Amino acid sequence: MFKTLKLNTLKFQAAFVVGLLSTASEAQAAGNDWSDIARNITTSIEELPGLITGISYMLGLLMGVVGILKLKDHVENPTQTPMKDGAIRLAAGGALFGLPIVFESMLNTIGTTGTSIQPATLNKVTFQTS
């Protein structure tokens, strides 16, 4: 049984390496360089703040509801559930719910354009072959 498992694992690894090498040769034939890769990464993460905002709002609301339920449990049975459990969850929910507003005000304060510090740009990297 272990021999067949090992054989199947080796077949999968070989297929993975062949697929990886064929993809690398296609990317090389297309003429991609480091600036294209950097540009693709930059365009891929443009929507990341919106995703973080949505997740932050959802988790903030969830933590608030769970905090209220923990406070209800404390009122019903104070010896079983301490009040700090509900208070901590309410505070964490409020912080998560307020995170997008803080992020936006921070971005407006620092700004995204101007004459201050500019990030370095990578135009092109080439490797000499001999």
Structural description of this entry:
- The chain is mainly alpha-helical and 130 residues long.
- It has a domain at 66-72 and 83-104.
- 75% of the residues lie in helices and 0% in strands.
- It is built from four helices and no strands.
- Helix 3 (48-76) runs antiparallel to helix 4.
Features of this protein?
single chain, 130 residues, mainly alpha, 4 helices, flat
**Shape type:** flat
Number of strands: 0
The description of the largest β-sheet is: none
Q: Give the count of helical stretches.
A: 4
Percent strand: under 5%
Structural class: mainly alpha
- Low-confidence segments, given as residue ranges, are none
Please bin the fraction of helical residues: over 70%
Radius of gyration: 26 Å
Mean pLDDT: 79
N-to-C series of helices and strands: HHHH
Q: Termini separation (Å)?
A: 49 Å
List the helices and strands and how they pair.
Layout: H1 2-30, H2 34-44, H3 48-76, H4 83-110
Helix pairs in contact: 3-4
Question: Nutshell version of this structure?
Answer:
By secondary structure, the protein is mostly helical. It contains four helices and no strands. The chain is flat and about 75 Å long.
